[in-house]
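Notebook B, p. 112. Complex prediction, attempt 2.
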Amino acid sequence: MMPSSPFLCVITDDALCPVSLAEQVLTGGASMIQLRHKNASGSQLFSWAVEIRKRCKPYHALCIINDRVDIAMASHADGVHLGQQDMPAEAARKILGNNSIIGVSASSLGEAMQAEKDGADYIGFGHIFPTVSKKKEYAPLGTETLRKAADGLSLPIVAIGGIDLENAASIISSGASGIAVISAVIRASDPSFAAHQLVCAIKKNRS
Amino acid sequence: MKHKQQKKAPLPRLYLISSGDENADIGTLLLNQLHLLPRSHPCIIQIREKKLTAKKLLILAQQAQAIELPEGTLLLMNERVDLAIAASLDGVHLPENACSVKTMRGIAPGLIYGCSIHSPSALRIAEESGAEYLLFGPVFDTPSKRKYGAPQGLEKLGAICRQTSLPVFALGGVNQKNALLCMAEGAYGIATLSLFRDSARFAQTIEELYLLLNP
């Protein structure tokens, strides 16, 4: 089951130990951890996934694995997050069954609608603002496009890309269910506190 | 269990690893060569294309699976159990730094699992984990593995083969001239990647190796 809106998702980064990062942001209030590490070996990913899942449990937070459906299954993670170049959601759903969460990255309304059709549980939508975490070939989508996507889709949207303390609230008021961040927490001297501040910023917006 | 028994038929002795050269043009090389496989010579084919995204790898695996291959041929995917399941392949080959066979068999029990090993300690781990075959190498000098140092040599191949009852495939610089040396050391079969690089001689080379390995 998806976390209740509004929520914070933290995506791990190649530069930090994913397990210790997860531990810190969970205490700060993150509801979803996405394990994403493109250069790690399969056995390394698997052991991180097992550890992160263990740490998510007491917080009722979700542990989501980027790209590797097999590692998600083997580690009993809550689900997978699939990019446009990963296994299609439809194929992943056949393997995972209905109890696992499948998120799909979309950078346009068209991709988002397709993901909804393919059986995704949430859409990772972005990048909304300019970002330093990932090299991008296209311009930021902006909150207007985010609003259009939120209006056009029935699935929860997790917005990503350049989200920080200043603009986090505008993301939620534009219709997203959650925010996903990398830099905003890993570049902070205290990732736990940075996560806590982001959670406060998006929850305040609800009232 | 019944399904597993079926797969206990002896493994083919010739093991082909895809070139790793496939790029945006999804798998033209591999697919063309699968069509060229001599009808009466089953072999093991491992799809190992590190440059392809998971999306393209899945399409390639599905296309390979759709080709009518010689009876007894096994199609394996390198490491990605999820893609092997999605494309209904026969099994998975796990590199030394991948998840263990035991872990992966837990999510996909019906598949064949093999492991790369480079040392006696890796052999123990693979055996205990439930591997069904082993790839050991590089036995001879091969350009793609030079950066890892000197080849392991025939003696180490022999030592590994004597320590296990699992079928061991010799990998790395193996060709028609030295294949029998590997077999004399106790190898079950040979594995090659370079075969996929020469389309013109592909079928003939398979023929020659097949006769050497299945006298």
